[in-house]
Structure formats: C-alpha cells, structure tokens
Design a protein that fits this description.
The protein is an alpha/beta fold. 40% of the residues lie in helices and 15% in strands. The strands form two sheets. Strands 3-4-5-6-7-8-9-10 form an eight-stranded parallel beta barrel, surrounded by four helices. Strands 1-2 form a two-stranded antiparallel ribbon. Helix 1 (35-48) links the parallel strand 3 and strand 4 (52-54). This is Aldo/keto reductase.
Length: 302
C-alpha cells in the first residue's frame, strides 16, 4: 500500500512567508471565563505546540450581547503578558455586522479592523479574514479596503472564510496581493470542499485551507446516523492501529489531503487540545484514507 507523506508540524501560510503550526486553536467558546483562567488556557495551548490562534469579532456573541468578548478577553491576556505576542500568530475575522447580516463595505471593514486591533491590544494582526461574503459589496471596494489595511500596517495578510470559489476568484482579481487563506467547513462528515473544487482552487492559488468544525460539530464523537457511524467505525480502526483517539484520527485525515488543511481545534479543554496533537503521529496510506472517504460518501467510488 502506498503511504501518504508524513504530516509536517509546520507549514507556510499561503504566500505570506509566515510559518504557522499545522494545527490551529479556535476561540469561538473562549469568552465567559476570568482572565487568569483564560491565561492558563492560552499557555496550555502554546505548551501543546500550537501557535496559530484563530478568533473573530463575533466570537462571544450569544444572540443578544457579547459581540467582541472573545477578542477583548484575549487582549487582556496578551496585555498582562506581552511576551505571549512573540510566541503566536494571531488570526481574526470580521464582516458580520449586527443586527445586519454581512457588511464588506470599505467603511465598515476599516472600523471592524480598528475595533479588533483595539480589543486585542495589538498594533497589527498577522491574518485578518472576511468572515462571511457580503453579496452587496463590490469585490473591488472590498479589495481596496483590505489593501489599505495592509499598507497601513494594521494587518499583514488577508484571508477569506466561507467564500465560494467564484467569490474568491472575484476578490482575487481586484487585489494586488495574494489571498493567503480560505476557511471552509471541512470534516470527515463534510467532504464537499474535497470534491467540489474548493481545495483544488486552494492549491492552484497557494491558499492555506483552515478547516472549521473539523469534528463536524460533535458528530464525529457522537454519530447520529448510519453515515456518521460508518465514518466513526473507519476512524476507530485507524485510531486503534496508532493508539490514539478517534478525534485525533479525524484531524489527521483532514491534514493528509495534499492541500494540507489546518484543522481548527475548537475545544476549550487543555487535555483535549493535547489529545488532538496525536494527529501528527498518523501515517496514512491511500487504502485507509479512501476507506474513510467512501464511508463519508455513503456509496462506493466509481
């Protein structure tokens, strides 16, 4: 059987020249704890070997209030221990304007980026991503706003999240710098980007895929239908071989794709983040990798 390449612990973030870890930590549920507890969690993640921290201005919002709370708490942690800033790559997102759905107008993007910088207590953000595409914003206007933010030093590079291939192509057409990352939902139960051209486009454009919800919103751990159970069975078979958890195996399956997606670990428990790092130990072969894909598709390959 043909073994796939080993998973490297680090990779380049698109064409940015920035080196990041091959796994990231997501801060969607980071808000709601005190600063001391938050600091302990941040240190625990760093101690696991993860340096790419992914947050967003919407993180912490509960439907009524809390907009910006995850960034603000993270900013307090960074302000109390300024040495942390040199140990991590910070990524954030914006473009969801409450109570409106999405806003990628030049005026809003400028205020959103400034607000994120203020909450994070940073002078610059390594990666800033448009969280959701705004259909009513002309990509040329969006591109000019992003370029202005880069030129002013507010952000170092730009990415997109939940964009279609055509939306990425349109924005890229008007940008004078590369889009370094794309953030779709990818998991062993959400394989669309592997089959609809999204990850092919990422490889062509040298964009780093950042995979959100890599455990399918908990369905990998708790299968809720026949398809999910079939995927779990195949993951468990590999997990047993390497002596690791199903979750770590699910992360590694994503990472084995040639576009080298970076799974964003959403757990706010240090032990589960540490467990996820076992994903780096898996050596996939084509037969086993495709066995998971077949289970995910629910039908044999042609």
């Amino acid at each position: 059987m043909s073994d796939l390449p080993n998973i490297s612990p680090t990779r380049q973030l698109g064409q940015s020249g920035i080196e990041v870890t091959s796994m990231a930590w997501g801060m969607w549920r980071f808000a709601g704890r005190d600063v001391a507890e938050a600091a302990r969690l941040v240190h625990a993640v760093l101690d696991c070997g993860i340096t790419l921290f992914d947050t967003a201005d919407i993180y912490g919002f509960n439907g009524t209030d809390g907009f910006g709370d995850a960034e603000s708490l993270f900013g307090e942690v960074l302000s109390k221990d300024k040495g942390l800033r040199d140990r991590m790559i910070v990524a954030s997102k914006g473009g969801i304007m409450l109570p409106l759905p999405y806003d990628s107008s030049a005026a809003y993007l400028e205020t959103a980026i400034d607000a994120t910088l203020s909450r994070l207590a940073l002078d610059t953000i390594a990666l800033w991503q448009i969280h959701r595409p705004d259909i009513l914003a002309h990509p040329q206007e969006t591109a000019r706003a992003l370029e202005k933010a880069v030129q002013s030093g507010k952000i170092q590079c730009v990415g997109v999240s939940n964009f279609t291939q055509s939306q990425i192509a349109a924005l890229n057409h008007f940008l004078d710098q590369p889009i370094v990352s794309t953030q779709p939902e990818i998991s062993a139960l959400r394989i669309d980007p592997m089959e609809n051209g999204e990850l092919d486009q990422a490889m062509v454009m040298d964009m780093t895929p950042l995979a959100w919800s890599p455990l399918a919103g908990g369905r990998i751990a708790s299968p809720d239908d026949d398809r999910a159970q079939a995927v779990a069975k195949e993951l468990d078979r590999i997990a047993e071989t390497f002596g690791i958890s199903r979750a770590a195996t699910a992360y590694s399956w994503i990472m084995a794709h040639p576009s080298r997606p970076i799974p964003i670990i959403g757990s706010q428990r240090a032990d589960r983040v540490a467990d996820a790092m076992d994903a780096m130990t898996v050596q996939w072969n084509r037969q086993d990798w495709y066995a998971v894909l077949v289970a995910a598709r629910g039908v044999p390959l042609p």
